[in-house]
Write a structure and sequence with these properties.
alpha/beta
Length: 213
């Protein structure tokens, strides 16, 4: 995930507003006790998600892939008054840690966790979203995009994480590497979709931003 020289990445971190105390503890707790801690958004990306949310002031946010709940807090920071964030994850084992930390924030009542397969839960949502964040299994990125698209308002945003996939998107792809194939196909799908304006930011592992026209 780390493409920048360490000293440049450290400089960016130092010159980015810090996480609050709850996020700092959740960050440390995840890295100390949870497998695959690199899945956590972390300081720099978390502040980017928070900044997007503050700029948009969404009333409805959908997050696909909750993990330990860090990014949900960041996205909830910019919710409009009365706003709500729905977050979906199939791993119920991490629900307790996410809820424990959410309870320490002002946003606990605005975060609605749904446990189950996103492909089954998204069609059941009767909402219009201002902002969608996709950060789940890579093979289904294209499917999730298709499922949420009509639920996003014109002018709304769809964000997708890990679209550089540790640099594998620019390397020869092995036939058995389905995740890389899926990420490359997803990036091309968005880039050629005339219904959106898109921007791929090389932040951390890459964030693709699509604005619905």
């Amino acid at each position: 995930m780390n493409f920048l020289p360490t000293d440049v990445a450290d400089y960016a971190d130092v010159h980015t507003s810090p996480e609050d105390e709850v996020l700092q503890r959740l960050n440390r707790d995840t890295h100390a006790h949870i497998l695959h801690a690199r899945m956590l958004s972390g300081h720099l990306q978390g502040r980017l998600l928070s900044m997007f949310s503050h700029m948009i002031r969404p009333r409805r946010v959908l997050e696909i892939g909750t993990y330990t709940g860090y990014s949900a807090i960041c996205l909830a920071e910019g919710l409009a008054n009365g706003g709500r964030l729905i977050t979906i994850d199939k791993n119920e084992e991490l629900e307790s840690i996410a809820r424990r930390y959410w309870a320490e924030t002002p946003y606990a009542a605005q975060i609605d966790l749904r446990i189950g397969r996103a492909s089954e839960l998204i069609p059941e949502l009767n909402e219009v979203f201002d902002l969608v964040f996709i950060d789940a299994d890579k093979e289904n990125y294209g499917l999730y995009y298709d499922l949420v698209f009509d639920k996003v308002r014109p002018g709304g945003f769809i964000l997708a994480d890990n679209v550089l996939w540790s640099g594998k998107v620019v390397e020869p792809i092995k036939p058995a590497d389905r995740d890389t194939q899926a990420v490359v196909a997803f990036n091309q799908k968005i880039h050629t979709d005339p219904r959106v304006e898109n921007l791929l930011l090389p932040v951390r592992d890459g964030i693709l931003i699509a604005r619905k026209l």
